[in-house]
């Protein structure tokens, strides 16, 4: 049985493990965190990725964990409502498109792979390829040999660094940073996305259906020198500096930040690579082609990438290198179409001037009354829909599960 080591147990890793099991491979997942990382932020599943979820038989579970968001409400620096819009339109979702917390999706995928070996609290240290496998040393566990190794370990992928070189070569910053952390429920309103646009920086707070707490989200221009060299306290100080003087409930949110259990701050960057495999080592999901949170398509790319990678490997028994080439050929146009969404979306997420904010507010207020309303909405949703469906999924070969 072909053995595959997957680094990363979030979305792409467990999804890949599911499909590899289905095709008769034996996957092992190694995750750096001591346990499955719950919580996080809300992510979208659209188009071809929904089809993958259907083929896994997980649609019902995903629907049961839907965030249930109903509206986005824009507020000014005093908290007064500027405009409101439907949550699905705000998130660029239509039809069956789903929104779910990343942690809930990771839990669903991990629970769906009970026969997969998960190793927590460890990380790959070295990869030594041989003619018919890869010898792997770990930071904690004993050395092992696998037929294939796949990095599904996110934007700052360890496998990418070990096998493909420093991340500075592959990361393309989009000019903005993003921060997100959990805040007490009282900051948000259940099922409402509160947004406060200010010139050059945006703050949001949302609370999903039934959630005991809320999430605060901050977008701002990348600071000079970046944030990579800073520790958590340094990153928090950076965020406080970037939002100094901001109105609405920002000062209270920044106070709450110091107690946040899950503070996240990073550059919005895309991963751009000429190749996603070298020999018997490959990448999937954000590690290979992270489109950035601004695209709203990272989760979908991870799900589709996992499906295509497993299907391509299954279609080339005994020749993983041919399978990896097929994966790349099928996925690249889809990835490029989705990566293109990010910069366009970002322009609408952070507005440059007070005049732009006034114009956006006016458009949102007029929208329900405009005669060409449907056409305007389509102009927002159509590019996302087109990118999300820009791949024909290969058929699933007959399962070889033992
Ligand atoms: C703030 C924010 C908002 C986002 N919003 C959206 C959105 O609205 N819609 C959307 O579709 N996407 C969104 N995304 C992106 C989405 O979360 C990712 O595209 C998606 O989670 C990618 O899944 P992945 O499995 O490839 O990587 P990740 O989810 O990043 O998972 C990587 C996993 O690898 C593990 N890992 C890291 N290093 C190692 C190591 N050395 N060894 C072992 N394991 C390791 C990590 O602990 C993690 O579990 C957002 C991302 C962020 C940060």
TrEMBL record:
Q: Using the record's annotation, list all stretches that form the FAD-binding domain.
A: 2-338
User: A Gene Ontology MF term for this entry?
Assistant: FAD binding
- Protein name as annotated: 2-polyprenyl-6-methoxyphenol hydroxylase-like FAD-dependent oxidoreductase
- What's the superkingdom here? Bacteria
Matching SUPFAM superfamilies:
FAD/NAD(P)-binding domain
Q: Which Pfam families match?
A: FAD_binding_3
Organism (species): Micromonospora kangleipakensis
């Amino acid at each position: 049985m072909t053995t595959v080591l997957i680094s990363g147990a979030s979305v792409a890793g467990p999804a890949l493990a599911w499909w590899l099991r289905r095709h008769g491979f034996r996957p092992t997942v190694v995750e750096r965190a001591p346990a499955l990382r719950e919580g996080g932020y809300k992510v979208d599943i659209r188009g071809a990725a929904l089809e993958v979820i259907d083929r896994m038989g997980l649609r019902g579970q995903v629907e049961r964990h839907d965030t249930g968001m109903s509206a986005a409400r824009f507020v000014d620096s005093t908290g007064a409502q500027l405009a409101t819009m439907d949550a699905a339109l705000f998130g660029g979702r239509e039809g069956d498109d789903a929104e779910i917390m990343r942690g809930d999706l990771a839990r669903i995928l991990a629970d769906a792979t009970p026969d997969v070996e998960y190793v927590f609290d460890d990380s790959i240290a070295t990869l030594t390829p041989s003619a018919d496998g890869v010898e792997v040393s770990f930071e904690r566990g004993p050395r092992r040999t696998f037929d294939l190794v796949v990095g599904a370990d996110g934007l700052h992928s360890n496998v990418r660094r070990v096998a493909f070189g420093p991340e500075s070569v592959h990361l393309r910053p989009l000019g903005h940073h993003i921060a997100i952390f959990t805040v007490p429920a009282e900051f948000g309103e259940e099922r409402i996305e509160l947004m406060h646009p200010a010139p050059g920086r945006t703050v949001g707070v949302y609370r999903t259906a039934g959630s005991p707490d809320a999430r605060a989200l901050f977008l701002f221009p990348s600071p000079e020198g970046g944030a990579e060299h800073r520790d958590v306290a340094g990153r928090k100080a950076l965020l406080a500096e970037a939002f100094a003087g901001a109105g609405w409930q920002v000062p209270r949110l920044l106070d709450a930040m110091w107690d946040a259990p899950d503070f996240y701050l990073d550059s919005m960057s895309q991963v751009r690579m000429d190749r996603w495999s070298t020999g018997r080592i490959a990448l999937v999901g954000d590690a290979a082609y992270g489109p950035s949170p601004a695209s709203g398509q990272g989760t979908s790319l991870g799900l589709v990438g996992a499906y295509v990678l497993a299907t391509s490997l299954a279609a080339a028994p005994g020749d993983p290198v041919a399978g990896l080439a097929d994966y790349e050929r099928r996925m690249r146009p889809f990835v490029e179409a989705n990566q293109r969404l990010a910069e366009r979306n970002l322009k609408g997420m952070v507005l440059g001037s007070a005049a732009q904010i006034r114009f956006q507010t006016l458009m949102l207020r007029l929208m329900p009354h405009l005669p060409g309303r449907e056409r305007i909405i389509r102009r927002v949703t159509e590019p996302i829909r087109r990118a999300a469906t820009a791949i024909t999924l290969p058929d699933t070969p007959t399962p070889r599960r033992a």
